[in-house]
UniProtKB/TrEMBL annotation:
Cited InterPro entries: nSTAND1, P-loop_NTPase
Domain of life: Eukaryota
Pfam family, any one: nSTAND1
The protein's name in its UniProt record: Novel STAND NTPase 1 domain-containing protein
UniProt domain Novel STAND NTPase: residue ranges: 52-193
Length: 273
């Protein structure tokens, strides 16, 4: 899809959403929910809303509040250790009703996992938006033109892949510097670690790197997936060994569907920390 086709698709989706909105008003139905869910369905290439999403309401709401401030672009970095839940938070933000209402179809999500090596983050973005200009300057302009059409939200997920390697860093910083020149654009990046790229005037207050889940949320998550009882004698110790970090919690809870919790605890203890 090229830039023109993408714009046409967005306009078509906007018309569909408009028709749905009008129809909902006429039928005096539950307007906000229906319209919000239709818009959520129509926004292109957005990952689905997390089904299980526990213990991150405050963090999610803090980001939603910053990016939905009227007439103001926001630049947010979601930081933290591997598997701590950064992508989940970004996805929840993309589907938050206030964000759907503010940005509608103009919510974009680009996974940057594949940008590593000598890849260029600008090329990855252009590929996402169907821009095939070989000239870097022309490609950058085409990208900015698409993003500047309407107020929009762009999520760059796992941006560390584009930024971490010394060879790529200048390119990644340049791409971010370009994006923040687009007046109507709000940017959310997720990155492993605690360091932010320098070419972005990050919105204040700066959000700290994500911490592990609170005990209650970790327990709820483990129990929901593993189906073991919250009164299980080994659960507390197992959760402690997993440090309340979502990824190991999810992986271990899946194994706990068929492995006895006692054996899991013993195995986990024998692993290097
Ligand atoms: N708040 C949460 N509630 C329930 N499950 C969660 C939560 N946060 C993360 N998870 C689950 O934990 C796993 C890892 O989450 P996620 O991919 O969001 O982490 P990440 O920090 O983006 O990881 P990476 O560093 O690899 O990019 C996923 O299976 C996700 O569904
Ligand atoms: Mg991630």
């Amino acid at each position: 899809m090229n830039g023109v086709q993408l714009r046409a698709k967005l306009r078509l989706q906007a018309s569909v959403a408009q028709v749905l909105e009008t129809a909902t008003v006429r039928s005096a139905g539950p307007l906000p929910t229906v319209v919000a869910s239709e818009l959520a369905l129509c926004a292109p290439n957005i990952p689905p809303k997390p089904v299980l999403y526990l213990g991150r309401d405050l963090e999610t709401q803090a980001i939603v509040s910053l990016i939905t401030l009227k007439d103001k672009s926001a630049y947010i970095a979601i930081l933290g250790a591997p598997g701590i839940g950064k992508t989940s938070v970004a996805t929840a933000v993309l589907h938050a009703p206030d964000v759907v209402a503010a940005f509608g179809l103009h919510r974009f999500y680009v996974a940057c996992d594949a940008v590593g090596g000598r890849g260029s983050s600008l090329n990855a973005l252009c590929a996402h938006f169907g821009i095939s200009e070989p000239n870097r300057g022309a490609a950058a302009k085409a990208l900015c033109d698409i993003l500047a059409e309407e107020r929009c939200l762009l999520v760059l997920d796992n941006f560390e892949s584009a930024w971490e390697a010394a060879d790529n860093r200048a390119d990644a910083e340049e791409t971010l510097g370009l994006l923040v020149t687009v007046k109507s654009l709000s940017l959310v990046i997720t990155m492993r670690g605690a360091e932010r790229p320098q070419s972005v005037p990050w919105t204040r207050p700066l959000l700290p790197p994500h911490a592990p889940l609170h005990d209650d949320a970790a327990k709820q998550l483990f129990v929901a997936i593993s189906d073991i009882s919250e009164h299980n004698a080994h659960l507390a110790e197992l959760l402690q060994l997993l440090d309340n970090v979502p990824l190991p919690l999810v992986l271990t809870a899946n194994i706990a569907q068929y492995e006895p919790s006692e054996e899991l605890t013993v195995t986990r203890k024998s692993l290097p920390m």
